[in-house]
Design goal:
The protein is 77% helix and 0% strand. The chain has 338 residues and is mostly helical. The N and C termini lie far apart (63 Å).
Length: 338
Amino acid sequence: MSASHDRAGLRGLLPGLMPVALVALAASWLSEHYRAPVMLFALLLGMAINFLSSDARCRAGIDFCSRFLLRAAVALLGMRITFAQIESLGLGVLLLTVGAVALTIVAGWALARSAKLDPTFGLLSGGAVAICGASAAMAISAVMRDTPAQRRATVVTVIGVTALSTVAMITYPLVAAAVGLDTRATGIFLGATIHDVAQVVGAGYSVSTEVGDTATIVKLFRVAMLLPAVLTLSWLPHVRSPESGAGHPRPPLLPGFLVAFGALVALNSSGYVGPAITGALQDASRWCLILAMSALGMKTVMAELVEVGWKPIAVIFAETLFVGVLVLASLAFGLAGH
């Protein structure tokens, strides 16, 4: 009985899963051949066939990808991080990174309020800029109430941080050289300011192997900040819906995917998991995130994004500028230690 029920459930998901998977595969192919962010391709290609989300046959599969697979992807990000990597940074770098993450999120909230936008947009975009770009935006979105306005905010944030992260990958190594940062400081600057992991790796190793190693470890610590940041944001009254019931269920105080994230960090740090399994789970996280991004695009109507206006993009740009100047100033004053 249970097996037949599961098969029936899978059949109900397949009409939506198949186009989402095709979009994800196409986005991955385009990313590999044109050296552009895969998440942006997934989002834009999904938006091109958004009419499928209004088809009753496809809706269940698309919702499954945008919700369940999103949470699975965030949980599996824990397999990228170990406690040893974090410890190797030193106390000064850890404090600088934690401070930059916290202050950027607060700055995002303040900037959104000053621009007369919903403050939750500032928390969402500030968290994306502060932690790990599109991945953080999706993780924070997962603990917010699912509404059309929230989905539009997520899409705008993903587009904004992905575009700015690509610009930063090209320009920030030049900035570091222009202000005279040494190898260690350059790695810290790139790892603490560029939004997405892939762009941090690209920027760091374009300078040198030493810079790339430092930048990647700093960036992974920022990814580790995803757990406390999303957990804290999920408890805020402006993020957690005061409503409850079938239409708007209140999110749990401790979301399961964040518990899984923390557990996988601990597991990855234990040394009991072999490189093959770790690599497979990291690939699974990447694919789940691409699928979730494709589904989010399919649930987004382009005409609705036009209504958002220029202010949200200006806020994301200001947040990016804020964290960049903050980290540069901290390095100039020697706050990251030696």
